[in-house]
Design goal:
460 residues; alpha+beta; PmbA/TldD fold; 8-stranded mixed β-sheet; 6-stranded mixed β-sheet; 24 strands; 20% helix
Length: 460
Amino acid sequence: MLNEVTAKKVIDCALSLGADFADLFVERNRTLSVNLKSSKVDQITDGIDFGIGLRVLFGTKVLYGYTNSPAEDELIRVIRLLCAPDQRTATRTGPIAFRSEASSQRLPSPAAHGSDLEARIRLLRKIDELTRKQSREISQVSAHSLERHQEIELFNSHGLHATDLRLYTRIGSEAVATDGDQKDSAFYGPGASLGWEFAEGIDPAFIATEIARRAVTSLHAEPCPAGTMPVVIDHAFGGVIFHEACGHLLETTSVEKKASVFWDKKGEMIAHPAVSAVDDGTIAGAWGSLSIDDEGMPTERTQLIKNGRLENFMADYVGNLKTGHPRTGSARRQSYRFAPASRMRNTFIEPGPHRFEELIASIDRGLYARSMGGGSVKTGTGEFNFSVQEGYLIENGKISRPVKGATLIGTGPETLKRISMVADNFEIMAGMCGSVSGSIPASVGQPALKVDEILVGGAK
């Protein structure tokens, strides 16, 4: 996408102005989305975005800019602007030489980007039709498909020249159930780092049944009692709490500023021995997987916590310079408009030895959070407040009545220490993660977990 001779001249210019490091991130991104609402096609968007991000480092000071032009004079103009405040005598002599590394030979899906737009619309209409058939109380259904075809090319002053092709596909649907003036909704949105072939394997009946059941169950549930109690958080998207309340605290983005309560806890016990957690960018087809990160480093499986002990942090190039923690292939960004930062990929708590039924049977009175909703987290401390989208009381070791209005309130560090049982029903789910380098595809996951004690906010 960018002439190698041009890239070399731009990086040589940055080094001649005294920069210690420079890199270019070239991106061509095509996105196709189809939205269905009220059983009708509401919007179709198909567009291409191209740009180049330029980064220079003076020591650990980062300066970043971007442009939509690949012209040599424009790129050198941006580099000169970035270097101007810190310009100094060059410490490096001689031109750089690139070593080319084509990191991915994956070809675009033959069905990608609207070659069969009707197939997208048929799938969404089928989800809509089947969802409405689940209950007369389903008053609204929306569905959408999203496909992204991202080509990247990287050059840096260490001589790296790498390319990659990334495919993303996600199908999402929401159902609203209504009874008089009462309404409840449910969402389900699987995704993968694959082409349209992923969507062709989606079962519309499963999605329809799932979102209709959640919405209708919540609509007729009784108010959840409040208080401190044991809670079983179910598998898959239940992992959003670990992601938000603990995962971000293990990124060098926060560790380098000592804004994380874990910044100096490497090697220490920070969780119950039942807890082992991983951030893995190598899972084939997973929504958050990559061949290389956004600095050109091959991705890897990073053991964050092992049997309760903090083993590693997630580090990018700058994070490594500032903290000394080894790079983990975790540099990520939304697009060329953002400088990279250490970010999660597929982050999850590993499966344990227990059956799900054992977790439930161990509780006399508590809450079963079958599916989690949104929430808020305080950066640095991991204090969280997450809603339970679908919840049930646990009474005498059995799942009993559905409840609504429940929220889980606590802190990530405290909750890690109170997880005493981990089930074997592991699953991950697709989501979007927002942070300093924009919004990126990331998976969350876990098996079912028993938290011995957590504050449950309720409606009564």
